[in-house]
Amino acid sequence: MSIDYVGVAELKVAVEKTGGLVVLAESFGHSVFKDSLLRVFQCGDNDLGLSSNGIFEVNFSKDIKIQGVLGPCASLEKKGPLCSDTTIGQGGTTAWKMCGLDKSTSLCLIFDIVKKENPDVIGQAANNQFYFQFLTYYQHSSGKMRLRATTLSRRWDLIAGFDQEAAAVVMGRLVSFKMETEAEFDPIRWLDKSLIHLCSRFGDYQKDSPSSFVLSPRLSIIPQFVFNLRRSQFVQVFNNSPDETAYFRMVMNRENVANSVVMIQPSLISYAFNSGAEPALLDVASIAADRILLLDSYFTVVVFHGSTIAQWRKAGYQNEPEHKVFAQLLQAPLDDADAIVKDRFPVPRLVICDQHGSQARFLLAKLNPSATYNSDAPPTPGGDVLFTDDVSFEIFLDHLQRLAVQ
């Protein structure tokens, strides 16, 4: 039990079924709450685009059936032949009520492929197209009712149309839902088995030869997403209160793919004298004494100064005219962090910290532990090590390859 437990976990069902907004902050005076509240009432190009009184309806070809929806909606109990016998989330219907929605509101639909009795029919259907039609009725903030119709046609070619980022987000929503509804569910085992099955089915390899294993470029990042999902706040509930876990899952369940991917696998940008701003690996090896890192994990934005940069800043070099370049280097990640904070809802927590400082944990917890306290190789000069027993991505990938080729 957390001392600041306020009951968000118990309110989760009500918030999601009514499409409400929720913000979890340390206090009403905290910038996360105050700035998020201002964003709700913001007008202009960057407003949330809040709408209400929505109905979401689906139509599709007879080759598939709908199992349910994961996201901020409530079932309208519109049953029919398109509904699957298996239900996930808000199932048993082809229409849902969305009392509140905004520009980034996203629903996750789970479908079931209709099994054919004749195997020849299956082969024939594999070459045919199937379609989806999504109808969204809603009341715009101007008061006018609008209808948005989206019709898609696809072929039964999984690899050609595979979206790795969307797949990672679906796995994140699905594993969160299973953790809340299935008492004996083991999320790590489920994620590992799903990934191994995917790799053994679609990977290119020689049997019992891990070194020959190769994934298609359309699938190559999935292992990395699953590795970070296993370590994320959606799966690892230890060290988080029930309120925090429910809050993280509620936000992911309504955000679009781009935002949700950042929650699962944060982005890292490096700033240095000789290179400027450039993407960096989400790895402890990216830490250097003469480098500034900007981590965006959606809920938290971290500006991390290497030890040498921190010493120079504390000495006040940035205030001297001959060190304008250093002052610009310090300011660049702060400007980028401010841009992220201003355009996001809920507004993330901004953490500015130094290497070896106590708040550096916000960055270290998200990095791949390629160098730990029990590693054989020493850390790079000016680098860092992680005090963790978690396996690194390299070891995770080695195990995956060995199991996939069996």
TrEMBL record:
Localization of this protein: Cytoplasmic vesicle, COPII-coated vesicle membrane; Endoplasmic reticulum membrane
Its membrane topology: Peripheral membrane protein
Keywords, in A-Z order: Cytoplasm, Cytoplasmic vesicle, Endoplasmic reticulum, ER-Golgi transport, Membrane, Metal-binding, Protein transport, Transport, Zinc
Biological-process GO terms, alphabetical: COPII-coated vesicle cargo loading; intracellular protein transport
Domain Gelsolin-like: 277-363
Coiled-coil ranges per UniProt: none
GO molecular function, one term: GTPase activator activity
Domain Sec23/Sec24 helical span(s) in chain numbering: 163-261
SUPFAM superfamilies with a match to the protein in the record: beta-sandwich domain of Sec23/24 (SSF81995), C-terminal, gelsolin-like domain of Sec23/24 (SSF82754), Helical domain of Sec23/24 (SSF81811), vWA-like (SSF53300)
All copies of domain Sec23/Sec24 beta-sandwich, residue ranges: 52-156
Primary localization class, coarse: membrane
UniProt keyword annotation of Transmembrane present: no
GO cellular component: a single term: endoplasmic reticulum membrane
InterPro entries in the cross-refs: ADF-H/Gelsolin-like_dom_sf, Beta-sandwich_Sec23_24, Gelsolin-like_dom, Gelsolin-like_dom_sf, Sec23, Sec23/24_helical_dom, Sec23/24_helical_dom_sf, Sec23_C
UniProt-listed PANTHER family: PROTEIN TRANSPORT PROTEIN SEC23, PROTEIN TRANSPORT PROTEIN SEC23 C
Function: Component of the coat protein complex II (COPII) which promotes the formation of transport vesicles from the endoplasmic reticulum (ER). The coat has two main functions, the physical deformation of the endoplasmic reticulum membrane into vesicles and the selection of cargo molecules.
Family (UniProt): Belongs to the SEC23/SEC24 family. SEC23 subfamily.
Annotated protein name in UniProt: Protein transport protein SEC23
Species, as recorded: Centaurea solstitialis
